[in-house]
Design brief:
The protein is mainly beta. It is about 5% helix and about 35% strand. The chain contains one helix and eleven strands, in the order βββαββββββββ. The strands form two sheets. An eight-stranded mixed beta sheet has the order 6-7-8-9-4-3-10-11. A hairpin with a 5-residue loop joins β6 and β7. The longest helix has 7 residues. The radius of gyration is 14 Å and the shape is globular. The two termini are about 25 Å apart.
């Protein structure tokens, strides 16, 4: 790896640094991600949690995804920025919102989840591998 992935919320109250390359990166077009992002999809990078340092205290809310997986979405209670996501049953991963990266151009999507829920105006690269829903773990 050339340099850590760093980022945080809009006001700077939450900061993270990851000293590993992403295990995966994806766009998700499910309705929950549409609501969370306020647009047609959300973009994520998945990292090993052991390579992650977080500064600041995030607020969070939990919800259950389509396959029964509980997801904990962390956001800044000061500025409201959604920053990262944790999975209680998968404590070894740390999922970052691509827009929170200090250098968002480092994000390179590899695949798309939930294309069945895509909005007709949300244009995703058609060359990306696409799953109609969430692929099996």
């Amino acid at each position: 790896m050339t340099r850590p992935y760093t980022g945080g919320c809009a006001c700077g109250a939450i900061r993270y640094e990851v000293t590993a390359e992403p295990m995966m990166s994806n766009d998700c077009q499910c309705r929950q991600c549409q609501k969370d992002s306020g647009t047609g999809h959300a973009s994520y990078l998945v990292f090993p949690r052991a390579a992650t340092k977080i500064a600041g205290q995030a607020s969070s809310f939990d919800f259950t995804g389509d396959q029964g997986l509980v997801k904990s979405r962390a956001f800044c209670s000061h500025c409201g920025t959604p920053v990262y996501m944790l999975f209680p049953t998968m404590p070894d991963i740390f999922v970052v919102r691509a827009g929170t990266l200090d250098d968002p151009e480092r994000y390179r999507p590899q695949m798309v989840f939930w294309s069945d829920a895509a909005q007709p105006w949300d244009r995703i690269d058609p060359a990306l591998r696409s799953f109609s829903r969430m692929p099996p773990a």
